[in-house]
Amino acid sequence: MPASKQLFWIYVAAVLAVVVILAAFAAALFIYQRHNLRLHRSYAKKLLDAHEEERAWVAREVHDDALQRVAILQHELSEWDTAEIPVGGPGRASARVEALRSELQDLGEMLRRVAHRLHPAIIDQAGLVPALAQLASDVSRSSGIDVETDLQDDGRSEQLSRERALMLYRIAQEGLRNVARHSGAKRARISARAQNGDIAVSIQDFGHGFETTDPSRSKGLGLISMAERTRLAEGRFEIWSRPGEGTTVRASVPIKG
C-alpha cells in the first residue's frame, strides 16, 4: 500500500478514535448529569417533605395543645369573673389558683420549645457551646435518652460566624433527632472542640448501628441534610457506624473564612 494511503487510513483511524473518545466522554457526562439531577430531585423532595413535616409539627403544637390550653384558661377565668370565691371556699380557690399557675407554666414551656425549635435564640445570646449544652438537656428531658456532653471550649468557637454556628447547631439537632428516632439508644454523647483552625461537633450514640454501605440508611434525609449543611459551610462531614456498635457523625467547619 502506498505511503500516502497508509497515512490517510492512519489519519482516519485517529479521527475515529477521537470521535469515539469524545462520544464516550459525552455519554458519561450525560449519565453523570442525569444521575446528579435525580439525586438533587430526590433530595429536594425529601427536603420539602421535611419542611412540611416541620410545619405540621408546629401547627399541631399550637392548635392541638396551646390553643386548647388557652381555651381552658379562658373558661377558668370566666368562672372566676362570675364569683369572687369559687364553690368550695378559700381552700378550693387556692387549689384552682395553683392549677392555673401550673397550667400557665406548662404552656410557657411548650411555647418556649416551639420558639427554640424555630430559632435557637441562645446562639445569639450566649454562643454555640452553651446552645449545644441546652440542646443536650432538652433532648434528654423530652426523649428520655441520657445525652452526655463533652464540650471543650477555649473561646475559639466565639469566633465562628453566626451562620456557621447555627449550621453546626442544626447538624447537632438533626443528629440527636436521628438518635431518638432510629438508634434505639438509651445513651448518647455530644462533643465539640477546636482543632487545627476548625470547630468539630460530634454526635455519638450507643444504639443499633448500621452498615454505612446500605443506601437506604446512609442516604436518609437526616444524614443528607447534615452533609449538605456541612458542605455549605465549607466543612467536612464524616460518619462511622457498624451493626451493634452504634453510630458517630462528625461535622467540622473552618472557624474563619
Primary descriptors:
single chain; 257 residues; alpha+beta; Heat Shock Protein 90; 2 domains; 5-stranded mixed β-sheet; 7 helices; 5 strands
Helix fraction, binned, reads: 55-70%
Number of DSSP E strands = 5
Q: Provide the gyration radius in Å.
A: 28 Å
Q: Estimate nothing, just give the exact number of structural domains.
A: 2
Shape: elongated
Strand order of the largest sheet: 1-2-3-5-4
Structure explained in plain terms:
With 257 residues, this protein is an alpha+beta fold. The chain has 2 domains: 1-118, no CATH class; 126-254, Histidine kinase-like ATPase, C-terminal domain (Heat Shock Protein 90). 66% of the residues lie in helices and 14% in strands. It has a 5-stranded mixed sheet with strand order 1-2-3-5-4, covered by helices on one side. The longest helix has 80 residues, at 3-82. The N and C termini lie far apart (66 Å). The mean pLDDT is 75.
